[in-house]
Amino acid sequence: MATTPHSSASRQSPRLLLFKLLVPSAIGIFIFFIPVTWAGRSTIPLDHLVTAARAGLGDGARYYALALIVAGAAYPLIKGEWRRSATDIVFTVLKLLGVVAAVLTMTSAGPALLHQPDMLPFLYDKLVIPVGLIVPIGAIFLALLLSYGLLELIGILVQPVMRPLWRTPGRSAIDAVASFVGSYSIGLLITSRAYASGQYSAREAAIIATGFSTVSAPFMIIVAKTLGLMEVWNAFFWLTLVITFIVSAVTARLWPLSRMDNHASDGEPEAQKGDRLGLAWRTGIKVAEQAPRLSASVRKNLAEGLVMAISILPSIMSVGLLGLLVAKYTPVFEWLGWLFYPIVALFGIEHAQELAQASAAGLAEMFLPALLLGGDAGIDFVARFAAGVVSISSILFFSASIPCVVATRIPITLWQLVVVWAIRVALTLVLAIPMGMLLQ
Fold first, then answer.
1. Which positions ≥6 away from 321 have C-beta within 8 Å?
2. Which has the higher per-residue pLDDT, 106 or 144?
3. Which of 37, 333, 340, 374 could link 42 by a cystine bridge, Cβ 3.0 to 4.6 Å?
């Protein structure tokens, strides 16, 4: 006979329920959110674990990544998912091309231009291997954050902020923080899991995936160093965060996100006036009461993490390489930059054309705006500052985050992602350029 929540509660003491709510959640918070200094490096424990795993694997990390890429290309063929739609067919072909790119990387075969430091080596060593490690390892510990009531408890507490500003449930704050202190791939894993279980509507999941899954804080430092902005690091850091989430609030109210389905089968309960804290506590305890065994949660999350990893990595190799080649050897992004030139020119800043083109190049790889403007000492401060903010705030790019979103179950098309990207870049430039002028 099935066990009802009431009968389950009768066998679990209040102390046990309190333990199940607080202890796993506290460990999860520590793993994902609390910086720890180890071997002279300060970062979150998850990052330390990934670094240790990569060091332990040594050269084996490259073969591990290759195995995941091959598995990712074979998965849609084995499952028959490649024939579901035209988009699935296209991405299956791209995943097969990702295998070819990975083999070329491992063997150093093929044209020399592919093996320049900013091409295949960059994609494989700086993106593929870290993502291939952080997603499965992070998924193991996600069970502690997702299964024992923390998400629901915090979600209800921050509803008054999240709903009015970003039109998302309170629990989406966890996704945003996980992306920022850990990895956008972890944030997307949380979002995909919550959408699949009915906790988010399609619109909410799309808003979160395209508006909150920004790069981590350590990568912001790399962007600032590349652009020579470390002298104004604190201002750059906080202004970038504020601009990013203002842009997210606006895009949530514009097409295509605003027109997506907004039904969630297991949505977050709304608190009545004066009962928010009580409802948050009761909801968290109820989830802890019904939580599965930790071993079962870990197995489920690890399996989902591996599937997501193998879905992402082949696309990063193929789509990322194509984007980098287009940016370096064709005028496509130069042409695309004219979309943003009128916005930049309105402010009358120096190097307006260079900033517009660099912003457009961010569609291929988020680091390209910083690379394109950071290497030229003659680029003025305002253009460099705006390029840095665009690198972070645009969120969507073909070398990683777009394939990640497409690999999830969130029903947003590739074309819609490109539209959202263009809107985000335009809005970011409108906000970042005047902020740069004030800082200058």
1. 101, 114, 119, 120, 123
2. 106
3. 37
